[in-house]
Design a protein that fits this description.
By secondary structure, the chain is mostly helical. The chain folds into two domains: 129 residues, no CATH class; 147 residues, MetI-like fold. It is built from 15 helices and no strands. Helix 4 crosses helix 12, helix 8 packs antiparallel against helix 9 and helix 13 packs antiparallel against helix 15. It is globular, with a radius of gyration of 25 Å.
Length: 300
């Protein structure tokens, strides 16, 4: 009898838990679904807020037309380049520094580790940061997207903690065989810390891809504008852009947009363009994410 009651209570508990997570998943997914169905629906209906659950008047011309906006291709290339290069260098630097800070024989190890970590708690502010970047000749410079983000104290902490969970005997055995620091890092440590590196890759890639404030403060050269900054401008200027599109006759792309686009369609479409790349990249690294964060956050 007790067993039967236990089974019933377990089933009720499972139903409640599954129902909760299904509802939570729907709440998380629905904003993306709502955004998408409005980008492929009749623009006039979308502008009036009449598209809520089911797309109406399905078409895909919004994506084709918005992609023709001036400067979008170059901006996408800059964003892709900064994401790939910046993420790669951040992951390598975080991995190596996190490993080095576990080596007890490192000169001044505690001092340098604290010197890096203390930057998490103190920020000089926007003006000193801008003056520093200007003095380093990083205004209107592609390196402004790369260099400041290479060293991340939070990432270093995650890697250091992860490396400390690896048995020291592996490194000691390699040292006995004559392996140096770089060899140990490349051939022993790197393969073992893939989960935490994948986690850092997600953090860094999302941050690089979504960033636009550095462009806002440091870049005036349109050739160095990132996709997010261009789309940020389009979203903020959607009403005036839609009016310009309707009244302008300067170019094929503008002429095509004049017949169809509204401020709402521009906002929805450019927002979807920003989100899509991360939605494709994240699932690939997600399998490492939980393991990486758990091991990197708790010293075992």
């Amino acid at each position: 009898m007790k067993k039967k009651k236990g089974n019933v209570s377990d089933k009720i508990f499972n139903i409640v838990i599954y129902s909760f997570f299904i509802l939570f998943t729907i709440l998380c997914v629905f904003p993306f679904y709502y955004l998408f169905i409005n980008t492929i629906s009749d623009n006039s209906l979308s502008a009036k807020g009449l598209v809520n659950f089911i797309p109406k008047g399905i078409h895909f011309t919004n994506y084709l037309d918005v992609l023709k906006l001036k400067g979008l291709g170059q901006a996408a290339f800059i964003s892709l380049a900064r994401t790939v290069i910046g993420t790669s260098l951040t992951v390598i630097a975080s991995g190596f520094l996190g490993f080095i800070f576990t080596k007890k024989e490192m000169w001044g190890r505690k001092f340098w580790y604290r010197f890096v970590i203390i930057t998490m708690y103190f920020n000089a502010g926007i003006m000193p940061w801008y003056i520093t970047m200007m003095n380093l000749k990083l205004t209107n410079n592609f390196l402004a997207y790369i260099l400041p983000s290479i060293i991340s104290p939070f990432n270093i902490i995650l890697v250091k903690t992860f490396v400390e969970s690896i048995p020291e005997s592996l490194q000691e055995a390699a040292e006995i065989d004559g392996a140096g620091v770089l060899t140990i890092f490349a051939k022993i440590i790197m393969p073992l810390i893939k989960p935490i590196l994948a986690t850092i890759t997600i953090f860094s890639a999302v941050g690089q891809w979504n960033s636009f404030t550095d462009t806002l403060f440091l870049v005036t050269d349109q050739k160095l504008f990132t996709l997010q900054f261009v789309l940020y401008k389009y979203i903020n200027e959607a009403n005036s852009l839609a009016a310009l599109i309707k009244n302008s006759q300067s170019g094929i792309a503008v002429a095509n947009l004049a017949n169809m686009q509204t401020a709402t369609s521009i906002r929805m479409t450019v927002s979807m363009i920003v989100v899509l790349p991360i939605l494709f990249v994240y699932p690939y690294f997600q399998r490492y994410f939980v393991k990486g964060v758990m091991i990197g956050a708790v010293k075992g």
